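REVIEWER CHECKLIST
Item 1: Sequence provided? yes
Item 2: Single chain? yes
Item 3: Sequence as submitted:
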Amino acid sequence: MMGYFLLIKIKSGFLDLKNPLKLFLFLMLALTSVLYGWLLALFSQQVLMGDVGELTINLLFNYILLIIFIITLLRMIFPTYKPQQALFPLSYPLSRWHGYLFSVINGFFTPYFFYLLLFLVSGSVFLGEYNIVFLAAGSLVLVSSQLFTRLIQYFIDFRLKKKAFLVLVIVAILATGLYLLSITLVDFGSWPGILVVALLLVSGYFLEINQLEPKKHEHNGGLKKNSGVYLKLITNNPKVRGPLLVAMVGKVLFFGVDIFLMETKEEHLMNGELFYWIVASPLIIYTYVFNNTWGFWKAIWLNIEIRTGDAKQLLWQHLRLMSLPLIADICITLPLLYISWGEAGFILTFYFTSAFFLIAMSFFWSVFTPRQINATFQMKGSTSPVSVLISMAGVLLLTTLRVNNWFYLIVPLYVIFGGMGIWVALNYYDNGKGILMRKLSK
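Item 4: Structure as written out by the authors:
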């Protein structure tokens, strides 16, 4: 029965790929996972040769595995908390143990685990040395973090018998033992990892059979209804989805070519000057979409205007709409920039200063220079030329940080100008709403 269940889940995953858009996204995300695995292997080689200060290969692996563990835990609450539910009802003719195992296995059939496992496999393939250690440790850390997440959710979602709280004691003893034995995450690739997975699996089953009843979440319906709403506002809007997809795919390809040139010819794409840093900044998602947020989401603006007309609420919705694309841009750009340049101070200052400036000014542009959006890619452009020019000029000026450390003095000016942009938009929104109505009604 277990084999049949796995076959159904795999078949269901392949059937989803009949949709051309889903197939394209699958291929691009799979390619990105493999690319990051390859980049990890390249960086590991530099660590082994002693080119990265005092960083050792074990320390590098521990950092990566710790990030995997933390992100897997955070999935429980981001973007919203999703209560744990049994895969089969208790009335189903299935033993509690088998029902529990099916629920555990079903939890791993998500895109998150597929792409992360692909990253681990590709990283181990390209690594050569330490490949088995990395793959085994990464897989066991991934499984452990998911089982640990399930343990936490039992206490959140269910009323449990008193003896169920013995699990907390077991987990505390286990954590103390790992600490006293100086077990690192890399060591999870051998018996410690197997032992931890086994104990977490048994502990989860113990909680499973000691449930009394599900807790009533008063806002559970609202959570389910609103889960991923901002993601849907992006993915279900083709005029937004297309440009952002082009932007993200273009970035991955751009940095892929740049790293290839560095490895083969020891030179950066475009010599690492001017236009290079325009691509490296988050500018593209603003010149494509978020310098004209209400042109793309006119219905949201009208809804807020009719209900409250509150500029602060409009700003909050503007920030929430751009949060997921900006997080995606950060995840793509910062690791690749660090691998290419290794100048952490400059990279972080440049990226986050430009991001703050672009975020702040994008609200100003969205209020005072809106444009009607009639097609996914329109000839007249989706954002105003003034906003594009000023945004580009702001990013280009920040590249002077590489010329001389004295130019770091301009960073506070970006914060001030960005703050002024938000202040003007909030305080003069009553005048700006007339512009919005006139230009978005053409």
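Item 5: Key structural point noted by reviewer: The longest strand covers residues 211-214.
Item 6: Recommendation: ____
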